[in-house]
Amino acid sequence: MYNLLMKDLKVGINRINFVLPFLLGALMLIPGWIYFIVVMYFFWVTAPNMFVQFRVQNDLLFTTLMPVAKKDMVKARMSVFLILEVLYIVIAMIYSLFTIRLFPNVDYLFFAPHLGFWGLCFAMFAIYNLLLFPMFYKTAYKYGPAQFTAITAAMIFAGVAQWFGIQSPYVFDLFNGSGANNAALQTSILGLGIVIFIAFTWIAYRISVKRFLQVEIQ
User: Fold this and answer.
1) What value does the mean pLDDT take over residues 95-104?
2) Relative orientation angle of helices 115-136 and 144-167, to the nearest 10 degrees
3) Rg (Cα) of the chain, in Å, rounded?
4) Distance between CA 38 and CA 68 in Å, rounded?
5) Cβ atoms within 10 Å of 160's Cβ, excluding its own
């Protein structure tokens, strides 16, 4: 599995995919912006580019000619996506530290980039992974419908969460008000988001392997 992962990281995807999180993450420096959009660029730009690159390289057929198990193929490919997902979030989190210090008096309408917000981002990626990979590995070739469904679901989650953050005084206070200064609360929300991310991604992996084992590659 390690060799497959290195193949994808070194050969399978363009190096620009590792640069984009640093470039797009700088959007976190915009005070009071809709910060969900920053990590959503993974859905809109990076993930589609990776799928296209793998297809252009005929990577699926090439990999099946190697003496590797199908479950390792799924694990390696998902690991590449997960590495970049986490990279998007971590880099954006680092930028947000500067945002909070540079603009301490911003009146946030949308979620402020405190720890709890990043828990929501992890939950959003969890939904994306849960839908994307099992749908994709029905064929291991057609990524369009899987991408559309996963992106739509993730955006709906973010939109609903943000709507509650604006409309509900309790949720607003939780993320932007007094709750933002409660380190234990913010860390708990982040931790819950990470747990959801891990659980949903593990479920997605199990379903994807089961479906991919039934795929006949020609």
Assistant:
1) 90
2) 160
3) 18
4) 36
5) 10
Q: Which residue in this structure is represented by tokens 């599995």?
A: 1
Q: Over range 130-157, report the average pLDDT.
A: 95
Amino acid (1-letter code) at residue 65: L
Q: How many CB atoms lie within 10 A of CB 207?
A: 17
Question: What's the pTM?
Answer: 0.94
What's the rounded Cα separation, in Å, for the pair 27 and 151? 20
Q: Where does residue 58 fall: left (phi above 0), alpha (psi -120 to 50 degrees), or beta otherwise? A: left
The SS3 of residue 190 is helix
- Report yes or no: 30 and 100 within 8 Å, Cβ to Cβ: no
Distance (Å, rounded) from C-alpha 102 to C-alpha 196? 31
Q: What is the DSSP letter of 171?
A: H
Between CA 24 and CA 158 the distance in angstroms is 18
Residue pair 129/203 in contact by the 8 Å Cβ criterion: no
For residue 205, pLDDT beyond 70? yes
